[in-house]
Amino acid sequence: MSLKARIAGVKPAMRRGGVLMLSPEARIHERTAAREEAALQAVAMAMLQYTPQVTLTEESTLLLDIGASLRLFGGIRSLRRRVRVDLRGLGFTGRLSCAPTARAAWMLARAGGGHALKQQSSARALNRLPLVVLPAARSFASWFEGIGCETIGDLRRLPRSGLQRRCGRAVLDPLDCAFDGAPEMFEWIEAPAMFEARMELFDRVENADLLLASAQRLVLQLVGWLCAMQLAAEGITLKLEHERGRVARAPTEVEILLAEPTWYSDHIMRLLKERLGKVVLEAPVIGLVLHATKLQPMAPSTESLFPEPGGTEEDQIRMIELLVARLGEDKVCQAKPVADYRPEVANMWVSIQEKVREETVTRQLPPNLSSILRPTWLLVRPIRLLVRNHRPFYGSPLRMVSGPERVEAGWWGDTAARDYWVAEGQEHALYWVYRERIAGTGEDSEPRWFLHGLFG
Amino acid sequence: MLSESYSTPESIHPSLWRASQLARSSTRCIDTGYPVLSAQLPGGGWPTSSLVELHLRQPGTGELRLLQPILVAAGKRRVMMIQPPHVPNLIALAAMGLNPSQITWVQADRTADALWAAEQVLRSGGCHALLFWQSHMRSESLRRLNLAAAEGESLFFLFRPLAAAHDASPASLRLAIRPALGGVEIDFLKRRGPQCETALFLPLSPSFTHRHAPVDRTTFTPAPARGLRAELVE
Questions:
Q1: Is A138 near chain B, with CB under 8 Å?
Q2: Chain B nearest C-alpha distance from A346 (Å)
Q3: Cα A376–A437–A432 angle (5° rounding)?
Q4: What is the DSSP letter of A138?
Q5: Residue B57 is assigned to a structural domain of this protein
Q6: What is the per-residue DSSP string for B76-107?
Q7: Is pLDDT above 80 for A302?
């Protein structure tokens, strides 16, 4: 029920006519058991990241055994906060409660939430609850009302043997479990062997940015599944399903490849945000499907005793991945030198997502590094220089200060036969120029000078 | 007592200084590798986690050779270059002493993307130095980058054309670099310290002055007319 409806005065268990009278623009939805079930399953999947012991119980309640997770997630407060944030991210509202026994937590949650960390405070809180919280007690509600028994505390003061004779064990068993810690068996849900999450969107979405909030719901499920299976994702595909119009349209695929396998939702969400920002939708989207295409065993990072000043290596990789996601993988480059005499061939830059080993880099570099003279900037295309008074001219006449260095290579394809000089302009800037050695005939017989680099 | 605190204002508050002194830097500074230059900078070096503007007349005036000592000091950490004016030549960078595997070259199609990338790099704070070339900058993006730089601990150099030297900027250190015979001349456009009228000459390698007769810089005669000069050299 929305806030607007509540302000208009709509209450639970009202009839359709009454609701429409109070707020005529109200939209009334039918309950769908299958969808509720799917929603609970989705939440349960996302909750697997906090504990492997998650179970679905009666009356749309999820029970999580967090006894072993408290230390990892920084205590009960931060764990509750994270669960609440995740619930909101999934697009649901819920009531959270925690108690030393599972049944007590269940009863507190059904009565509206609350938390009790010790057995005594849990008993105090339970005693105050109305007894209709217990499903088995509801059929005897009028009888309990008749004898003035309204709360769980009142119920517990009644003689046990008489209560068992009149109402059966169904009323007493949950109380034993909640108060005295009688053992209770649960069937913990098991993560499926393959992950695929699908959801229908609330509407036809035409803007890729709007998909992000919906995609978060799928990503949270993925993270829960990854934690349960102790896996990390290396590649993720988000399929955007289009409306089936006159022609069937194949879903648009948004693929994310990660250099370092991850299982953190905020990193995946940041990458998705940048990628979705670049996607141009051809048709409205009605559904989303998330796949984990490449998986690796999870390898949690070892934390060092002292924090590193510049952040960890993982932070670095995450930052680079974020740049790649927005700018494109060929725009973020790393060095991969090639052993060649031609400077433009030797200076090779490849995408940062390629794996380049450091030994390869050092092996391809010339051995006499310090003795060779190279400019720090290379022009993509050498500039043909004017020649005045038989001297190359670039802004001012150039004076040769070092050289020549002969480079002759690439006869099997891109032949280069050049004499390189370091030249100095009138304002003392240094240029790397070359003269082509293969001159033409006739008019082209003049030596041709080119500017190829700058000394930055 | 009062007159004493006037003569040493830094005893009142560490961020106070007299106009004739160099300020103390509020952030960690890394030695420039040139004692002459370090002596002229507040804190005795390039400040980390703050914006440093270098104004160049054209790319290729010795800007990377000037930064060579601190780029070499990167060790295992990354050096990012965002939108350099030309293709960085990795053999030259390796010859300078940098490790080629630690250099990352980022190109961006649009200015907004370049600014975004610079901000992400600064906020992550993980790299040793960020070198960023941008010719047109609005003052709000400058301020934004300056704040982002303060969050991390990396060195941040912004290379801008000399024409932008007249615009206001939030950077605490702004230098103009001009090529000179055998090195560069550095003008201090803005620093926390006294005005510096004369340019500082800094010799850089490779220098080709030793190939010719030793020339005293101060008595260097301007080059003669073009025609005559060409004949002389030929």
A1: no
A2: 8
A3: 15
A4: G
A5: yes
A6: TS-EEEES-SSEE-HHHHHHHT--GGGEEEE-
A7: no
End-to-end Cα separation, chain A, in angstroms: 66
Q: Encode pLDDT of B174-213 as tens digits.
A: 999 988 888 888 988 888 888 878 888 888 877 665 444 4
Residues A43, A174 within the same domain:
yes
Q: With left for phi above 0 and alpha for psi between -120 and 50, is residue B127 left, alpha or beta?
A: beta
Instruction: Round to whole Å and give the CA distance between B9 and A81.
Output: 49
CB within 8 Å: B90 and A337: yes
Contact A379 B180 (CB under 8 A): no
CA B218 to chain centre: 25
CATH number at residue A211: 3.30.1490.100
Residue-number span of the structural domain to which A142 is assigned: 32-180
Q: Are A205 and A211 in contact (CB under 8 A)?
A: yes
- A contact test, residue of B87, B89, B205, B221 with most A CBs within 10 A: B89
Q: Are residues A412 and A384 in the same domain?
A: yes
Residue A281 located in a structural domain: yes
B1: in domain: no
Cross-chain residue pair B105–A333, CB shorter than 8 Å: yes
A174 and A78, same domain (yes or no):
yes
Q: Which of A320, A327, A369 sits opposite B95 (nearest CB)?
A: A369
Residue B94 has its nearest CB partner, among A369, A428, A456, at: A369
**Cβ pair B179:A356 closer than 8 A:** no
Beta strands in A4-67 (DSSP E): 54-57, 61-64
Phi, then psi, of A111 in degrees rounded to 5: -85, 5
Rounded mean pLDDT, A171-181: 83
Show the tokens assigned to A436: 């082509």
For A347, the closest of B91, B206, B208 (CB atoms) is: B91
Residue B51 DSSP SS3: strand
Residue B32 belongs to what domain range? 25-233
ipTM of this complex prediction, to 2 decimal places: 0.81
- Residues A165, A75 within the same domain: yes
State the Cα–Cα distance between residues A422 and A80, nearest whole angstrom: 67
How many other CB atoms sit within 10 Å of the CB of residue A89? 16
Interface contacts (A, B; CB < 8 Å): 178
Subunit contact A427:B179, Cβ cutoff 8 A: yes
Question: Do both A339 and A322 map to the same domain?
Answer: no
Encode pLDDT of A273-299 as tens digits. Answer: 888 888 888 888 888 888 888 888 887
Provide CB contacts within 8 A for B234, sequence distance 6+.
A390
Q: Is the residue at B20 inside a domain?
A: no
Reading the block at residue A333, the tokens are 């480059």
What is the domain count for chain B? 1
Taking contacts as CB-CB distances below 8 angstroms, the residues of chain A near B93 are 335, 376
pTM of the model: 0.71
Q: How far apart are the first and last CA of chain B?
A: 72
- Quote the mean pLDDT of chain A: 84
Select the residue of B64, B106, B182 nearest A323 (Cβ to Cβ). B106
For chain A, what is the domain count? 4
CA-based nearest distance B152→chain A, Å: 8
pLDDT of residue B224: 42
